[in-house]
Each structure stands twice: as structure tokens, then as C-alpha cells.
Design goal:
The complex is a heterodimer. Chain A has 13 helices and ten strands. By secondary structure, chain A is of the alpha+beta class. Chain B is built from four helices and 18 strands. Chain B has one domain (2-220): Double-stranded beta-helix (4-Layer Sandwich). Chain B is mainly β. The chains are: A alpha+beta, B mainly beta. Chains A and B meet through strand 1 and strand 7 of A and loops of B. Chain B: Pfam families: AIM24.
Chain lengths: 360, 228
């Protein structure tokens, strides 16, 4: 008589709250369940029911009709072993079917998770590559007048602490001269001075340009300041500041602007939410292409306004030398340098633009 | 390693007495008090990848604390953040349990922990999350819950339904599927029960007698939303 080894399993019985660790043997025509040398159950192959169960659906359960008790094996790998002892019986036929079902189940699980992970990956990739496009679309839906309202809101923050000092007058004078050269614009430009010693200048959406004391000290001539302010005006005109702010606001705000029922109030609300982030707007970062376009815009504008366009180059060089000499780090937030350190390429591009405009 | 559950109910505390050389792993921040010379270390249980999986997918903390009796015997008191019960579940001989993320408190002895994905429907509607913790090995581990913890033994061939949001842990031998609580969709939702987890025995399920999400919604009704 062929008797199998004892296979480890867990035994459950109605009325017994705890499972017991048992050994299950397959002997000629019956399943024998033993615990500590004592035979707990015997079940003829002809009556035995075998199925897959458990959280993963790959555990093997053997039970009699009516389920008065059951033994559970940890995984489906036991099935081929059981088949060796039960092949010609009714139980053997069930096991053969179960092996096929377990294989199908595993294949299904693999396909399922491949599909789930694949779908999520594709969604992430599409989202990643279309994010800039979504930002552009969202920004194109924002009326410049709304953008100016954001500027009004942020301007109030600076107006409150902007004292009448010569530096303020200097920034306003340079800004106004550039604006005259700029001509008609949908934005209400306002120029502010900040007594921070950080070498910085930045623009908010809607036309608020702020120049720090640190920058005014570093850039001695008005030409240099005009170069920087012209560059910042370029960011506002190109809506770079709004794009960066919308990008920072996240997907929710973008969808609100794009699909928010086109209700103006909702869009204003979204933008005002952004305005609450006013303090962090100073740190908005722009891409390489945006910086290059702002440089070109700044050069053209300073030439039109009668400033020396080399001022921006001089300022860049001064910053570069200051960084090297004093081993100081120019703040990342300095929007004219933004995400990229100043490079020779950038200076060369500015010089090329100056030459191009002056040749006209 | 000996342990004792104190103040069982809504303020349960697990007291573990460690002999020299023994240690226990507990959820980050779970320690209430300990004998002075017991040593606490933050550890990534099962390595960095497992810790990352557990924290990102399983909603558990990245670091677990390991309390060791390297300098002599001592005791440590552990408790979860929310008010609720603590139960110790013992496993051996290939037994395993699945634990809802956030319900794991501590593991004693030779317990291994991993993260397992559930079926999408189970993950979305069971209230246990798409990823759950999988515990196996030999020894005991402690789970915590909101409200009291009840253990329910489901005999072979029988079915038992648990409202989603009340699951804490269930043995790996049992399985469940998401079903509507009522006879049809209308009665399921008008009864306020919606969906439930239908377990098939044999196996054991641990449930919490209060649903934290439902409790949160209940509290929100009494929070003033406007001033003046």
C-alpha cells in the first residue's frame, strides 16, 4: 500500500475556535489527518472536496461534504505531490483540475498587476510630459486683468512697508522709463524697493517688480539696474511668473482653472489662493528657455528706453566676480539667475542680441 | 518574553518584560515608558526596501523602534496613538495574518513582516487599503484598533460579513470578497451599510468595534464651520 509522507497543514473543526497544526497523509484511498500521533479524521477520496482558498487564493483546502472540518495547506505547490498518491481516484481528477486552475490564477495575477502597474506608469509618463502643456493651457485661460488683480493684492503687501527713500525713487524712475519704452501693456506695472541686503530682484504675476537694497548696492549704475528690471518685466510679459505660480499651485488648481465651469469667481478664487503664497513667490524658478527669452526682452527694452544694454552683462560679470572673490553663494531665489548659474553662453547670447538690435 | 495587557479597552497598554538578550519591535512613537537601561534604536525592519514598501505602500512608519534588553532585564510599556484596544495574536507553524495598515503596534519573537497588495476591489472598498501588512513566523504580535477589538472565528464552510472600516486583521487561510450589505444596491445604501467584506471560513478575523472614519465624520458634524 502506497502511503505518503505526512504533509504539514492546519486543521479547523466546527466548534473548535483554534486551528491545530496537523500532518496529513494520503493512504491508498483515504486522507488521514493526524495530530501528535492521534488520528483526528479519515476521509475517503471519493468524498473529499478540494479547492483553492485563502487571501491569495492559492492555498489548498480539503474538506468533507458539509464542511464539518477542513485542512489547509499553505500553497498550491503541494498539489503535484498529492497527485502522485491520488492519480487514479476522484480526488486525483479534482487535483488535476486544481493544478490547471492555480496556474491560470497565477497567470491572471501576473497579468492583473502588470496591467495595473503599466497603466499607472503610462498615466504618470503622460502626466509628466503634458504637465507643461496643461500649465500653458491653464495660464492662457487666465485673463490678464485677473493677473493684475493678483498683482494689486501683492502690491498692497509691499506698499505698506515701502517708505519714501531715495532708493524707492530710483527704482520707480528706472521702471517708469522702461514702461514708457514698453508702450501699451495689459498689466499694471508697479515697482517697489525692499531694504533686504540680499542681492535679489523678482516679479510677481500682474506686474509687481521688487528690487532689493542688496542689488541696488551691487549694481552701481542705472544701466545695470535697468537691465535687471527689464529682464523681470520680460518675465511678467511672457507670463513666466504666472506659469511658475500655477505650476507650484498644483494639479488641482490647474484643473479648477481649466474645467472649473469657466466661472470667473472660481478662477479668481484659485488665483487668490495662490496670492496667499505671496511670500514664497519670490522663490519661483524659471526654465532655461524662459530665462533666455527674458534676457532678450530685457536687452531690447533697455535699448528702447535709452539705457546702455551692456548693463545687464556688467551686472552678471560683477555677480560672478563677487561670488568668486567672496566665496559667497548667490541666492537661488535670484530670479534673473533662477535655476541656472550664469554662464558664458548666456553672456554671449546677450551680447549677440545687443549686436543684432544695434545693427538694425 | 512575557507580556501583559493593562487597562484593556479604550486605554490599553501592552507591558512587555524583556529578559537579557531579548528585544521587541514596536511602531515608531509607541513607547510610553520603560526601564531605564533598556536600549531604544530606530531600525528599518527587514531592510531599507521593505521599510520603504511598508511606509509608502502599507502606511506604516519607515522606522520601527527596537527596544532591547542588552544591559539586563527590564520592562517596556507600549500604546497606540488613538484611544482603543490592543490584542496580541500568536502564530506558529506556517500560520500567517494580514493586518490593516496603521493597526500594527508591536512584534515579539521571530515575526517577519512584509507588505502585500490586495485585489483592487478589496483594496478600494474594504477600508483596509490596497496594501496590507503580512505577518508570519513564530511568536506574537500586537495590533491596535479604535474602540474594542473582537475576535471572530469563522468555522469551515461558513460565511461572515464585516462592515468595511471595521477590519483590523484576518488569518491568511480565510478569504474575503467585497459584497453589497443589503439584498440589492438600493437597500445596501438606504440601510447606511453600503459595502461589506464577506469572509469565508475557516479562519479568524479581528474587528474593531468603532469605525475611525465614521467617528471622524460624526465629530465633524459638531465642529463649527463659521465664526461669529
Amino acid at each position: 500500500m502506497l502511503v505518503s509522507e505526512g504533509f504539514s497543514a492546519r486543521y479547523y473543526e466546527k466548534g473548535q475556535p483554534q486551528s491545530r497544526d496537523v500532518e496529513v497523509q494520503f493512504a491508498s484511498s483515504k486522507v488521514v489527518v493526524c495530530h501528535a500521533g492521534e488520528c483526528l479524521q479519515e476521509l475517503d477520496y471519493s468524498r473529499a472536496l478540494i479547492s483553492l482558498t485563502g487571501q491569495d487564493g492559492l492555498r489548498v483546502k480539503i474538506e468533507p461534504p458539509g464542511s464539518a472540518w477542513a485542512v489547509i495547506f499553505n500553497d498550491e505547490t503541494i498539489l503535484p505531490k498529492l497527485l502522485a498518491f491520488t492519480r487514479s481516484s476522484a480526488l486525483g481528477k479534482q487535483i488535476e483540475e486544481l493544478i490547471a486552475r492555480a496556474e491560470k490564477r497565477k497567470g491572471h495575477d501576473r497579468r492583473y498587476w502588470t496591467t495595473v502597474i503599466g497603466t499607472i506608469s503610462v498615466f504618470c509618463l503622460v502626466f509628466y510630459f503634458s504637465f507643461a502643456l496643461m500649465v500653458d493651457m491653464a495660464v492662457s485661460r487666465v485673463d490678464p486683468e485677473f493677473e493684475s488683480k493678483i498683482g494689486d493684492f501683492l502690491a498692497k503687501l509691499h506698499e505698506a512697508e515701502n517708505k519714501e527713500v531715495p532708493q524707492k525713487e530710483r527704482v520707480e524712475r528706472i521702471g517708469k522709463r522702461l514702461l514708457t519704452a514698453l508702450g501699451k501693456t495689459p498689466y499694471r506695472f508697479r515697482f517697489f524697493y525692499d531694504d533686504s541686503e540680499e542681492i535679489n530682484a523678482f516679479a510677481y504675476p500682474g506686474g509687481v517688480v521688487v528690487v532689493n537694497e542688496g542689488l541696488l548696492k551691487t549694481a552701481e549704475s542705472d544701466d545695470e539696474v535697468a537691465g535687471v528690471v527689464g529682464h523681470e518685466i520680460g518675465h511678467v510679459i511672457h507670463r513666466d511668473t504666472l506659469k511658475a505660480a500655477v505650476r507650484n499651485m498644483g494639479v488641482g488648481a490647474i484643473f479648477m482653472i481649466l474645467f472649473g465651469g469657466a466661472g470667473d469667481d472660481k478662477r479668481v478664487l484659485a488665483l487668490l489662493n495662490m496670492a496667499k503664497l505671496g511670500e514664497s513667490l519670490e522663490g519661483l524658478r524659471f526654465g532655461r528657455d524662459q530665462e533666455a527669452k527674458a534676457d532678450t526682452f530685457g536687452v531690447d527694452l533697455t535699448i528702447k528706453a535709452g539705457y546702455d544694454p551692456h548693463g545687464l552683462v556688467k551686472f552678471f560679470q560683477k555677480l560672478d566676480s563677487k561670488t568668486e572673490k567672496e566665496h559667497t553663494k548667490i541666492p537661488d531665489a535670484l530670479s534673473i539667475l533662477s535655476t541656472h548659474p550664469m554662464t558664458k553662453d548666456r553672456i554671449a547670447a546677450i551680447n549677440a542680441e545687443i549686436e543684432r538690435v544695434q545693427k538694425k | 518574553m512575557e507580556y501583559q495587557l493593562l487597562h484593556e479597552g479604550s486605554n490599553a497598554v501592552l507591558k512587555v518584560c524583556l529578559q537579557p538578550g531579548e528585544h521587541i519591535k514596536a511602531e515608531s512613537g509607541a513607547m510610553v515608558a520603560k526601564t531605564g537601561h533598556l536600549v531604544i534604536e530606530g531600525k528599518m525592519w527587514g531592510g531599507a526596501m521593505n521599510a520603504l514598501k511598508r511606509s509608502v505602500l502599507g502606511g506604516e512608519t519607515f522606522f520601527f523602534q527596537e527596544v532591547s534588553a542588552t544591559e539586563g532585564a527590564g520592562e517596556v510599556l507600549l500604546a497606540p496613538s488613538p484611544p482603543g484596544d490592543v490584542k496580541v495574536i500568536h502564530i506558529s507553524g506556517g500560520q500567517d495574518y494580514f493586518v490593516k495598515s496603521g493597526c500594527m503596534l508591536a512584534a515579539m519573537d521571530q515575526i517577519e513582516m512584509d507588505t502585500k497588495a490586495q485585489k483592487l476591489t478589496s483594496g478600494l472598498f474594504s477600508g483596509a487599503g490596497l496594501f496590507v501588512l503580512h505577518l508570519k513566523g513564530n511568536g506574537g504580535f500586537a495590533v491596535s484598533a479604535f474602540g474594542a477589538i473582537m475576535e471572530i472565528d469563522i468555522p469551515p464552510g461558513e460565511k461572515y460579513m464585516v462592515d468595511n472600516g471595521h477590519l483590523v486583521a484576518w488569518s491568511g487561510d480565510t478569504s474575503y470578497e467585497i459584497v453589497k450589505a443589503g439584498k440589492n444596491w438600493v437597500s445596501s445604501f438606504t440601510s447606511g451599510e453600503g459595502l461589506g467584506c464577506m469572509f469565508t471560513g475557516p479562519g479568524r478575523v479581528y474587528i474593531q468595534t468603532r469605525n475611525p472614519e465614521a467617528f471622524g465624520a460624526w465629530v465633524r458634524r459638531f465642529v463649527p464651520t463659521t465664526s461669529g
